[in-house]
Write a structure and sequence with these properties.
Layout lengths: L2 H25 L2 E7 L9 H17 L8 E7 L4 H14 L4 E4 L3 H11 L5 E3 L12 E3 L4 H4 L3 H9 L3 E7 L2 H16 L3 E8 L7 H10 L3 E5 L3 H12 L7 E4 L4 H7 L7 E5 L8 H14 L8 H20 L4 H8 L3 E4 L2 E6 L2 E12 L2 E11 L8
Length: 385
């Protein structure tokens, strides 16, 4: 065989092999690992988060999947301690072939996973978080303190004539950074912070904290507690007789937490978030109807944390479609200006964070009622793309 003929034949063979490999890749399922809090302090959000992930995958697959590939959902426990959650994620990634990770879990676990991934795999982090993270490969859909507090706190100060504030949170990065931001917004608006404290996740008695709040003369409290801690504190707050005269606002008090607190203990309680289950918009109503049609009237309550998982899949699809790829570098470039319309309305990504509507809701006798809307609020983050 002549050399030219051999080279030509080899090139055609290589091209054929590459085409076969490309076809095989396109035909293979896209494995997406969702790291959700199945256990631990945020475990009460797990069932609804899992349901929202399943609904997102079903809807995407009904429309042809992502980049023409059907999505295969994999679930890992993000409610474990950071090192253990990292091992669970590693198994899904390296052991079972996950190509993307969507995480709804606490910030300590996020730090562990970012250290594990090191920008090698797209990682979409969906819940409320403290801001300030620009780790390569990580994309954020959750609310930041500038979104949840910068406008809502001054509005509430004026609305309820509350100038003296007490801050309480769990003793980790989200609780501390959220309250640090709140202190700045309160002071700038002419208020005073009369107390600031942090409790471990394991605390089950807030009597001493409540006594300090009472004795401080606080007119309002920022609650930056998670899950069970928030339930315990807010129930005790009402039992201590403070609910009648002291306003509370939390940036992580959603429908499941409110159910645990009990409406009878929720007088003067507000929450600030990018989503509530009763938002009165066509997109939010369509999502709620689809959710309960799929999982039935006894499905776990919709809430901002669970719904954020659904948004994570929408963002993944939007960026991947724009990039034409799942490679981290291509997705990072394509993420700037990537947009979609979901239950929260139109969401647009800048600096790998999203601008979104923010709602302030008050707890009433029938649940949360949205009382103020701030349109398309910037995340306040400046990560380079």
């Amino acid at each position: 065989m002549k050399r030219r003929t051999f080279v030509s034949s080899a090139a055609w063979a290589l091209a054929g092999t590459m085409q076969s490999m490309t076809a095989a890749w396109a035909a293979s399922p896209l494995k997406v690992a969702a790291m959700l809090p199945l256990t631990g302090p945020a475990g009460l959000f797990g069932p609804s988060a899992k349901a929202c992930a399943e609904l997102a995958v079903e809807q995407l697959n009904a429309r042809g999947g992502i980049l023409g590939r059907k999505v295969e959902l994999m679930i890992g426990d993000g409610g474990l301690a950071p090192a253990e959650a990292g091992q669970a994620a590693l198994k899904l990634w390296k052991g079972e072939g996950a190509e993307v990770v969507i995480g709804m879990h606490d910030s300590a676990v996020r730090g562990a996973l970012e250290g594990l991934f090191r920008g090698q795999i797209p990682y979409i982090y969906t819940p409320v978080y403290e801001g300030g993270d620009c780790t390569p490969g990580t994309f954020f859909t959750g609310e930041t303190p500038p979104q949840q507090l910068a406008q809502p706190l001054p509005w509430l100060m004026t609305e309820r004539k509350a100038l003296k504030w007490y801050l309480i949170g769990n003793d980790y990065i989200w609780g501390r950074n959220t309250n640090a931001a709140a202190k700045g917004y309160i002071t700038k608006a002419g208020g005073t912070v009369v107390g600031d404290e942090y409790q471990p996740f394991s605390v089950d008695n807030f009597d001493s904290s409540l006594a300090r709040i009472r004795d401080s003369g606080a007119q309002a409290v920022v609650v930056s507690l998670v899950g069970g801690s928030s339930v315990t504190f807010n129930r005790a707050f009402a039992g201590f007789g403070l609910a009648d005269k002291v306003v509370r606002i939390g940036s992580l008090i959603e429908e499941n937490t409110l159910a645990g607190i009990g409406l009878q203990n929720a007088k003067n309680l507000y929450s600030s978030a990018g989503y509530f289950a009763n938002i009165d918009t066509p997109a939010a109503k369509a999502f709620s109807e689809a959710y309960f049609k799929r999982f039935g009237p006894q499905a776990p309550a919709l809430n901002t944390l669970a719904e954020s998982v659904f948004e994570g899949f929408l963002l993944l699809n939007s960026i991947a479609k724009k990039a034409g790829s799942l490679k981290v570098a291509a997705m990072a470039r394509a993420s700037e200006g990537a947009s979609y319309e979901g239950p929260r309305g139109v969401v647009t990504m800048h600096s790998r964070q999203v601008d979104q509507n923010i709602y302030v809701a008050e707890a009433t006798g029938s649940g949360f009622k949205v009382v103020k809307t701030f349109q398309h609020v910037s995340s306040g983050q400046t990560c380079k793309v």
